[in-house]
Write a structure and sequence with these properties.
The complex is a heterodimer of chains A (about 160) and B (about 675). Chain A has about 160 residues and is α+β, with helices and mostly antiparallel strands. Chain A contains five helices and eight strands. A two-stranded antiparallel sheet of chain A has the order 1-8. In chain A, strands 2-3 form a two-stranded antiparallel sheet. Chain A has a two-stranded antiparallel ribbon with strand order 4-5. Chain B has four domains: about 50 residues, N-terminal domain of TfIIb (Single Sheet); about 210 residues, Rossmann fold (3-Layer(aba) Sandwich), CATH 3.40.50; about 170 residues, Dimethylsulfoxide Reductase, domain 2, CATH 3.40.228.10; about 120 residues, Beta Barrel (Barwin-like endoglucanases). Chain B is about 30% helix and about 20% strand. In chain B, helix 4 packs parallel to helix 18, helix 8 runs antiparallel to helix 11 and helix 11 crosses helix 12. The model of chain B has no long low-confidence stretch (mean pLDDT about 95). Classes of the chains: A alpha+beta (about 160), B alpha/beta (about 675).
Chain lengths: ~160, ~675
């Protein structure tokens, strides 16, 4: 299956992804409506985008007493059926990454559904930090980031030719 | 028969990046806009502004009928009547004061392209040299700085660079999809240096964030030059073969020691050395890009020229991974500068800023305001502008408004009512970028594309139709012989050998010639000497510095104790472009209003916190703004930043229309001495 891979080393916390997701969920740009969240820490200059990883062994899915959480057969996305959700918030507790949000207005949990296979956050990611890729590719992408960091470190430590 | 939703392809013009878009329609109405995955620039990705074009186009406040000012307010009139009356009043002004008393003005609010050249053609056909635009405050300063040195403004080959240096540029907000290219290079191990007094979005990813004091970039550039010479790290063959003035450069650079640079810029000497090592190590694959942050200073062009020299010194010019010289699209030129030169009619500002006219055939908008108010050197009595809002975006807004109000005729074409339409005599509806078709060349990829006219309104004219109809009424219709914009596009495109039909089938663009690296090294650079000009005889002849000598900003040279803060204005926010888009409700949700960015130490000293109001005062005026206390490393103590374009707190109440860069004529808007009081 494909998931949204996040690369904090490329993210600039521009918030385009949050706006794109919030718009899809609510028609507005309130960050609170977005399923992807980007935290920015100025002191460390750290940008941390986080969104659902659609775990193979999804604890949210396992824990849901209303059986409202299921896997989309087409995309493989872990999705919430809002009509079944009882609003118990067990899934929020179960998710180790805080990627499920509770919508107080509707009284149900909400999370990324990969937009049916064309995630809007990725379409809006102008840095390229978000990529919609096969899970098998993730290791390659991770190695690419590590390799680049090492190359930069070597270059910085090398001094003048 | 079942039909799916219709998808049309075009280019986004919510900023000037021209990303490829797929426009989704249902029953002829635009319902969605997504990135075109086939477009080589954005590759399917779009920032949050693009889809909001739907909101803009169908906004309830769109101006869709011509308006005429009357004693009782705005009166809706038929388009033909509006054009007849405007032509009649322009003819009166022409008869009374001469054609040069009429100016045309291009803004950015509809996305410009041919709009610019059609307006330039109209002015000259009418006999007026006075073409004005937002370019006398953006872009041209950099174009000049680089062209004076390199003969063109080369394009950084970001994705192939081993070191990228951004000077006063924040691509994520100003050129969003440029960020992709920076990421691509970083993923191959490239280093990134960001020179900016603020920690911009892109500075969050920098290996070195060179946080220099506003307007001191030139000192850093000279410091780097000195380091390259000291380190013996410059490209001797390139310098020998392709440059002039190197000996003078070495001599002048001598005093710019890392310690002197630290004293002037605030950047630690060790960082100056590290930055020089990083750039020299990557050379010639060192790609630099200069943003608007460098332009709005009294030493802007000099600083930009100093930065431009580095590309030559490191042999990065015309080299893969450095900066590339692109061939312009061989489109026909609509302007009449060769056929009908009008420089003898003294285009406004040419006497003070001759390079502005030499290089860009631009008049100086600040001088134009003086001319309107004083009738000196001659009267400027009528202006016709499209998509421009100088009452908000030019410095010293009250004076701009006073000047525009005193015109005999002000015609503004725009999508919405603005601060500038508020003093207009006629407001005409302008066509947005999805309501007209025009040609665009993407120099980076050397492709030409044709935008699609996706929707239309009865009384809304495209640029060509408007200037054509006005020209016919003024007896200069012979200069506008094309039946419509499509006929014009066909004529413009002819020299490329491509057909409109080909471009219609490939809205993502068609290559007009394959990019070639090394052409300038072979054929010479497009400067007077054919060399990269570290020293410019052209500038020397005009009485300017031959070398890009560093001039300290006034606030460093003669600090004003009564105005201890240094105000930068105009840093881009992601969702707004100059004075545009404040009327898109969801943008307001995300970025609700104006603010003055302030260091925590300054906020503590002033006794203010987030949301408190302060009054920012310069010699020009004052503006009240809510405070935004940023993190300690996001701005330097003593510096402030306010983004322009807010009607409720217009920072151009305090920007200078009386202090300029001597070469470009750009106004002082980014190192302004101000005082700050808690209100």
């Amino acid at each position: 299956m494909r998931i949204v891979a996040v690369d904090p080393d490329a993210c600039v916390a521009c918030r385009d992804c949050e706006y794109a997701c919030a718009f899809r969920q609510s028609g507005d740009f309130a960050r609170s409506a977005s399923h992807i969240r980007v935290n920015f820490y100025a002191d460390e200059r750290a940008c941390v985008p986080l969104t659902c990883m659609h775990c193979e062994d999804a604890w949210c899915l396992a824990v849901c007493p209303a059986a409202a959480i299921d896997r989309d057969p087409g995309t493989g996305a872990v999705t919430i059926d809002a009509t079944r959700c009882a609003g118990c918030k067990m899934c929020l507790l179960a998710c180790p990454y805080g990627n499920i949000h509770f919508n107080a207005e509707t009284g149900v949990s909400a999370k990324c559904d990969l937009c049916g296979g064309d995630p809007m956050c990725v379409r809006a990611c102008i840095s390229g930090a978000l990529r919609y890729v096969d899970a098998e590719e993730l290791a390659d992408l991770r190695r690419e980031v590590v390799d680049a960091s090492l190359k930069r470190l070597l270059r910085l430590s090398k001094g003048v030719r | 028969m079942q039909t799916g939703p219709e998808i049309r392809h075009s280019l986004c013009r919510m900023c000037d990046d021209r990303c490829g878009i797929d426009v989704h329609l249902e029953d002829g109405r635009i319902v969605d806009i997504l990135g075109n995955k086939d477009h080589p620039w954005n590759r399917g990705r779009l920032c949050a502004k693009a889809r909001a074009a739907v909101d803009m186009i169908y906004h309830p406040d769109r101006v869709l009928t011509p308006l005429k000012r009357t004693a009782d307010g705005w009166e809706q009139i038929p388009l033909d009547q509006a054009l007849d009356e405007i032509a009649g009043r322009l003819a009166d002004v022409r008869d009374r004061y001469g054609a040069r008393s009429i100016g045309v003005w291009k803004g950015e609010a509809i996305g410009f392209g041919q709009q610019e050249t059609v307006a330039r053609r109209f002015a000259h056909a009418l006999g007026s040299p006075n073409y004005l635009s937002n370019d006398s405050m953006c872009y041209v300063g950099r174009y000049m700085g680089f062209t004076l040195v390199d003969g063109a403004w080369p394009i950084p080959d970001l994705e192939n660079a081993r070191c990228i240096v951004l000077w006063g540029a924040n691509p994520p907000y100003a050129h969003p999809n440029m960020t992709q290219y920076i990421t691509a290079a970083r993923r191959k191990g490239a280093t990134l240096v960001v020179v900016d007094p603020r920690m911009s979005a892109i500075a969050r990813r920098a290996d070195i964030h060179a946080q220099v004091r506003p307007g001191t970039d030139g000192a850093l550039a000279w410091g780097l030059v000195r380091q390259f010479v000291e380190m013996d790290a410059y490209d001797k063959a390139f310098v020998e073969d392709h440059t002039i003035g190197f000996a003078k450069v070495v001599d002048y650079a001598r005093t710019f020691t890392p310690e002197m640079v630290e004293a002037e810029t605030g950047l630690p000497a060790a960082t100056v050395k590290a930055m020089a090592r990083m750039m020299a190590d990557a050379a010639p694959r060192m790609a630099a890009y200069v943003g608007n942050g460098l332009e709005h200073h009294e030493n802007g062009v000099g600083n930009i020229r100093a930065i431009a020299m580095i590309d030559g010194l490191l042999g990065a010019l015309d080299h893969e991974g450095g900066t590339l010289f692109k061939e312009p699209a061989p489109l026909r030129d609509l302007t009449l500068y060769d056929e009908m030169p009008l420089r003898h009619l003294s285009p406004l500002g040419t006497d003070r800023f001759p390079v502005l006219y030499d290089m860009r055939q631009e008049c100086h908008t600040m001088t134009a305001m003086e001319a309107i108010l004083s009738d000196e050197p001659y009267p400027l009595r009528a202006l016709v502008m499209t998509g421009a809002n100088p009452a908000s975006t030019n410095p010293n807004s009250p004076k701009v408004i006073e000047a525009l109000r005193s015109l005999d005729l002000l015609v503004v074409r725009d999508l919405f009512m603005t601060e500038t339409t508020a003093v207009a005599d006629y407001v005409l509806p302008a066509a947005s970028f999805l309501e007209r078709t025009e040609l665009h060349a993407h120099a980076k990829h050397q492709i030409v594309s044709l935008t699609d006219k996706v929707v239309s309104w009865p009384d809304v004219q495209g640029e060509y139709d408007f200037w054509h109809d006005l020209a016919v009424r003024l007896g200069i219709g012979e200069y506008f012989p094309w039946e419509d914009e499509t006929a014009l596009n066909r004529w413009l495109l002819e020299p490329t050998g491509l057909s409109l039909e080909t471009l219609e089938a490939h809205r993502e663009g068609v290559e007009y010639s394959p990019p070639r690296v090394g052409r300038r090294r072979q054929a010479g650079f497009d400067t007077p000497s054919g060399k990269v000009e570290f020293a410019s005889a052209y500038l020397k002849d005009l009485g300017y510095d031959e070398l890009p000598v560093y001039h300290r900003p006034a606030y460093r040279r003669e600090p004003d104790a009564a105005r201890p803060f240094v105000l930068m204005t105009g840093a881009r926010k992601l969702l707004y472009l100059h004075s545009r888009f404040r009327n898109i409700p969801r943008f307001r949700t995300a970025i609700p209003g104006p603010e003055v960015e302030m260091h925590p130490d300054d906020a503590a000293a002033l006794g203010v916190a987030d949301g408190d109001t302060v009054r920012v005062t310069s010699p020009i005026g004052a503006v009240d703004l809510p405070v935004k206390v940023v993190a300690e490393n996001e701005i330097l103590p003593g510096n402030l930043q306010v983004t322009h374009g807010w009607r409720e707190a217009n920072v151009n109440l305090v920007t200078h229309d009386d202090r300029f860069d001597p070469v470009s004529g750009f106004p002082l808007m980014k190192s302004i001495e101000v005082s700050v009081q808690k209100v």
